[in-house]
Amino acid sequence: MSRHQKVGEKFLKERYEKDSLFFTVYDHYTPNFHRAIVTGKFYNKYDCLDLSQADMDLVDQIKKTKDKLPKQKYDWPVTESHNYGWFDPLVLLDRKDRRFYAPLNISPSTQQEIRIRADKSMQKPKFTGIPFKL
Fold this sequence. Notes:
Low-confidence stretches: none
Helix content: 25-40%
Oligomer: single chain
């Protein structure tokens, strides 16, 4: 036996003794329901609050606030996504008047893409080679 093997064995023995002294490995875990929970989990059925003990006025106020829409909660848009549709249009739009309302059925860039995809000479052949080097 060489010197390195002896040192390795001593080290492993010492490590095993310390681990067995300070660490406990459990094969089966059973929760202790009588112990206070450190952090509550919203999905835990044993850790939820009993609403009969809560103040019903406070619970109703929380429910009403949660059900409100952003326009009912705030006077002005809070986020950028609130800006769209927050205010009514400044000018009323008559969709029957073609001078002010002329929607495109298809945009020029989409028309060009359709023409390119329809042209068989512009299509690339499908790759059938090796996807990566071995």
